[in-house]
UniProtKB/TrEMBL annotation, chains A, B, C, D:
Its cofactor is pyridoxal 5'-phosphate. Keywords: Pyridoxal phosphate. Belongs to the threonine aldolase family. This is Threonine aldolase family protein. Homotetramer. InterPro entries: ArAA_b-elim_lyase/Thr_aldolase (IPR001597), PyrdxlP-dep_Trfase (IPR015424), PyrdxlP-dep_Trfase_major (IPR015421), PyrdxlP-dep_Trfase_small (IPR015422). It holds the Pfam family Beta_elim_lyase.
Amino acid sequence: MKFLSDNAARVHPRVWDAMKAADEPDSPYDGDGLSKALDARFSALFGRDCAALWVATGTAANCLALSAMVEPHGAVICHREAHIEMDEGGAPGFYLHGAKLLLADGESAKITPEAIARVIDPIRDGVHQVHPHAVSITQASEYGCVYRPEELAALSAFVKGKGLGLHMDGARFGNAVAFLGGSAADAALGVDALSFGMVKNGAMSAEAIVFFDPAMADKVRFRRKRAGHLQSKGRYLAAQILAMLEQDLWLDNARAANAAASEIAAAARSRLLHPVEANEIFLASTAAERAALRTQGFEFYDWGDDAARLVTAWDAREEHVAALARAIAGL
Amino acid sequence: MKFLSDNAARVHPRVWDAMKAADEPDSPYDGDGLSKALDARFSALFGRDCAALWVATGTAANCLALSAMVEPHGAVICHREAHIEMDEGGAPGFYLHGAKLLLADGESAKITPEAIARVIDPIRDGVHQVHPHAVSITQASEYGCVYRPEELAALSAFVKGKGLGLHMDGARFGNAVAFLGGSAADAALGVDALSFGMVKNGAMSAEAIVFFDPAMADKVRFRRKRAGHLQSKGRYLAAQILAMLEQDLWLDNARAANAAASEIAAAARSRLLHPVEANEIFLASTAAERAALRTQGFEFYDWGDDAARLVTAWDAREEHVAALARAIAGL
Amino acid sequence: MKFLSDNAARVHPRVWDAMKAADEPDSPYDGDGLSKALDARFSALFGRDCAALWVATGTAANCLALSAMVEPHGAVICHREAHIEMDEGGAPGFYLHGAKLLLADGESAKITPEAIARVIDPIRDGVHQVHPHAVSITQASEYGCVYRPEELAALSAFVKGKGLGLHMDGARFGNAVAFLGGSAADAALGVDALSFGMVKNGAMSAEAIVFFDPAMADKVRFRRKRAGHLQSKGRYLAAQILAMLEQDLWLDNARAANAAASEIAAAARSRLLHPVEANEIFLASTAAERAALRTQGFEFYDWGDDAARLVTAWDAREEHVAALARAIAGL
Amino acid sequence: MKFLSDNAARVHPRVWDAMKAADEPDSPYDGDGLSKALDARFSALFGRDCAALWVATGTAANCLALSAMVEPHGAVICHREAHIEMDEGGAPGFYLHGAKLLLADGESAKITPEAIARVIDPIRDGVHQVHPHAVSITQASEYGCVYRPEELAALSAFVKGKGLGLHMDGARFGNAVAFLGGSAADAALGVDALSFGMVKNGAMSAEAIVFFDPAMADKVRFRRKRAGHLQSKGRYLAAQILAMLEQDLWLDNARAANAAASEIAAAARSRLLHPVEANEIFLASTAAERAALRTQGFEFYDWGDDAARLVTAWDAREEHVAALARAIAGL
């Protein structure tokens, strides 16, 4: 019973169907009809003009989005535990040509205007220190916590006031939207570019970069090709994304994953290290307790010495979820 | 009737089947069983120890392979019309951190030891000019022509004698092997790293980088992640590659494409600008002749003012091929 | 008797004096009074607002200037024999983060709008090929030839019309101005940034980058520091530049070098491969003739098999120049 | 009375003399006799084979040295307050093509094997996190503290055991050697490459990169040119370095600066935030106290709200030093 990650879950049947339906040859790269439909589809979802590009991975999505905002001599402010800092193999350094990541602190891997100010304020004027060009936040955060619209409004106002760009890593954006009640626009309020995650949520190999400033997309089109991320059979990626958006499959899948996490969290109330708002549970536990869970057939990652990380995916099986909830309650 | 390119062709049914069969969750990234099977599978094919990595595009394959051989202050020698120079949006400059491409000439986009020498010899000793670290050749070439094993032996000996690495862009490697009679090892003789193309030949989104020096693969694993090319559901890419290798599907597909090209070429003998050895036909033709072909429903690219480029794919329909042959004969 | 290059000539006594006069400690980096005086001094010289930065080398000057105009996914158009292409050890690839150089042809290493068009026109729309962001020209050219103001006006209009930046490598800018009659503004007409060479013309280790668009300078200040080119005792570099500008020392020195070249050229009329407009002479000559000159004590470089390159510096000694002229006449 | 920094001090008269003596033209770049003499001169000083390159700045020295040890996908471990992290405008990101700096803690800006282990140990195996390729330490440290030979031996053994390179930023290497008693070899024990600072210690614009592994120097020669740091009149830089080494001028100058700092420190015993081992004094002080010192004519930097940083240079005037000591004692 796998609670290791949502990043290796199955591909949703409707995504399979959409890929198959795209098999008929069309123009290569992003010249096909499906790829061309993305802008309008995301514009409808967000209620404003968007330009959207597909790429194969969240790392590429994050770094390409940031490359539209950050010059090589600049920096990105992000949380100390952000994926771009901790888990992307130095990709920001590559895509941003040596720009730095400046690390902010914050509860549950969320950052606030105050946390950003604590990074910016000590930077001396002039050229001896690197200055930020953008801020990157993660929705939901590395600890599965969700920025509320009013938090985003305050963050965005602060970030714009400093003349910086604002990027959102939405590897689990669907889970955040599901938690907030369903408005994609609210969950990305004030953001310039969003990495809209699909792979953890039912797709196979397609993420969307959504730009709310079309000029950024025009630059990133060149950067995507230059990074070897412009696939020639791009229609299969576009098909995945469109299938995810069709009839809110992305939202249904995210709700299913969130519900599974909630069920587990309800059984683990006193052990939760972070509020369970999306599909991740950080569970205070001894090594012996974790061994006991594993003996019962549950797979998950240790999180340091005193905790476990459990992730539910869109395809979590109800009997596995219930079994895990019981097992945790019985510890 | 599309003869535009092989890069947007269908996905082969056996590749679809293999992807579906991979749907059950396994370890993410390249920790799954399918990804782990690649080294042995390619080692068997080439009759020597190989390490193989999947990536989504030929551009990524080429540039990552070269990144194992070329330092940022170095250069790659390639043909003036090589894909890495002409069609990859500057990706080599990105992946090689500013290393240069030094351009060689040669018939039908093939290069020889003499052509390489004409690039190297004028380079002055010392640090004022950039020195090559590797040579990249394309099999089959940009004009669909194939390096014979003895040509590769001579090239490789020359390149090694200069202390350089040797990379092969095999976007149409299958077509070259099919032409040569079926030995993958012969078609990649003396090469350090091969971009083994699958997408043009029946796969959806998976190319293989095959390293004949495992130390190169160890470095490129880091570079692949850093470039955002390590997909979390890597098992679907590995599945495509394994399906292509299973029972020589790659070779059958390439033979089908080559046969279609040969049939067309036979009808166009006096108009061929290059020998038709793989699946591309460069057809001397006037604008009026090309318009006539298009009127009959054939799609293809102009190649300058006086020629057309026609490409056959693995799924070329016999009646389309025959019709095109007739139409060309009738010009 | 050295006619190898002007790049190792003596430091002019007035430059020495200025450096000594700067010995009293002042603010480090470019916070000292001398560094701060550069903008006004160059603005006066060019008759318009300029921002000027010192750096130690022409390579740094060229590449930093270009870094204000060219994004990593772009390119620079320059002459096939430009210093940035042939002699800077790949520095443009480093400073521009992998951007390409696109090579134009032209008589005497000068380029024209037509030559630029021949580079641009075949570039396909879209992201598969690299597009230029700037043009770089050399004044005086690699063959010692000078762009006339009307040529610059035409070039600049064309380049601006394409939306590109225009950079001038002025390693021998003084020699060009001297040839044209003394107006710095005329010799840099229509240019966005100028590498104003001082080292070949009497300074020790200071070149100026002159920006006619101050926003470019603001960005390059960061890039200069990031490249390790912001010296802490910057006052000694500023002192050199100010001394060169004082009472037109730069122009007097350039005139002296040009006059020496003219005297030699007059003796070599029938052998000149390029017009002698600055301080370089390209002399058609056999190996035996060059050996004869060397036997008489003259040092210079071969230029291929059939020519010699002779360069005169600001401190060329009259008796050496006269002797060389006689020797050439006597061949 | 300036105690702001040693980085804007005068040029020593013997350095001036050496530069003047180098005025006669010689081969350009580093082909002159003086530049060629550096290897032997440093080999004699360190009692082992060295290869030494001049550059104009400490930032270039540090980053070029590191570029011989660190690949773009790697990282450098350094102290959280190291100059390369805090004061070089992102130059490591540029020179190392996006490699990261990983920050270690430690008293007085020195690091220990344990501190390095605390950085390395949490890094997960595999490609998702960046792995270090080198460690950089600063001698004397940012707080003017000196690594003892036995500390260096332990550090070096640890670093080598991890398969990493070891770089020493010796911007104030002379001050460290002076403190330790005069052996350059002891002060750089176990190091692969040393940035040997000259500019803060009496030179104008020349630092030395000393490689104890000649293969590193061979690579860095290309990188230096590529970074625009190969000056054409290199003989003036070599002359500065040779003058500094002649009759141990570097050591005498460092001793003078250290003695001045010691005199001040003796008057400030109870206020010292760090041991005064080189030429920097970090003085606990209130804003009012600092204002009082400034009223008396002393110039220096605040160090946060509760301290001052005072730096003595080789040319500190005895009466100024004595006056400062008295003033501090009288606070």
